[in-house]
Amino acid sequence: MEESGPLFECSRFRVVRLEETTRDGARHAREVIRHPGAVAILPLLDDGRICLIENHRAAVDRTLVELPAGTREPDEDPAETARRELIEETGYRAEHIRPLIDFYTSPGVMDERMYLFLATGLTPGPMDLAPGEQIEPLLCSWDEAMRMIRDGRIRDAKTIAGLLYYQALV
Asked: Which residue of 23, 89, 104, 123 sits 20 to 30 Å from the alpha carbon of 95, by its own alpha carbon?
C-alpha cells in the first residue's frame, strides 16, 4: 500500500489517502484516519462499584455514559495514558493498572487501537479535566451498569465492549 501525504491534519489525527492493489489487480484509493491510539479504563472500587463517567460528546450532541478514556500522547505507553486519563476524568489514582485487551475501534475508516485496562486499588482525589471537557463521575453497581447497557442508557461502543468483555472473560 502506498500512503499519500496528509489530506488533513489536526492535533489528534490526520487523514491520508491509501492506494492499494487488490487481488484482481485493480487499484483503489481509500481515505483513512491515522490516529495515535487511545485507552479505556474500567475503574473497579474495592466495594465492587464501577466508576463510569457522564461525558458530553459534541460529535453526537449528547451526554453519554462511558468508561473513562483518552487519546495517547506521542510515544506514550498505554498504561501511562490510562493512569493519566483516570486521574483527569475521575480523580481516582490506581494502585494497579492491568491490561485486559486491545482492539480496533472502527477499522473501516481508521487505525485507532484502543487499549482496555482494569484499574484497582483506587484512591479518590481531584479531577484534572482538560479545557472544554464536560465530565462527571458516575459510581454504580455492576448490576446497574448491565441494566444501562440493556435499556440503552449506555450507547458508547468501547464501554459496552469493555464491560461485557470483563463480565464474560475475566
From this structure: 104
Question: Which residue's C-alpha cell is 493519566?
Answer: 84
- Tell whether pTM > 0.85: yes
pLDDT tens string 108-134: 999 999 999 999 999 999 999 988 899
C-alpha cell at 149: 447497557
Is residue 162 within 8 Å of residue 130, measured between CB atoms? Answer: no
Do residues 113 and 104 lie in contact, with contact meaning Cβ atoms separated by under 8 Å?
yes
**Could you say which DSSP state residue 110 is in?**
B
- Give the per-residue pLDDT at 4: 84
Q: Which residues pair with 55 in a beta bridge?
A: 64, 135
Strand runs labelled E in the chain: 2-3, 8-9, 14-21, 27-34, 38-43, 50-57, 62-66, 69-71, 93-104, 113-123, 135-140
C-alpha cell at 40: 479505556
> Going from the N-terminus, what domains does the chain have, and what CATH number goes with each?
2-34 (no CATH), 38-169 (3.90.79.10)
For 135, the grid coordinates are 465530565
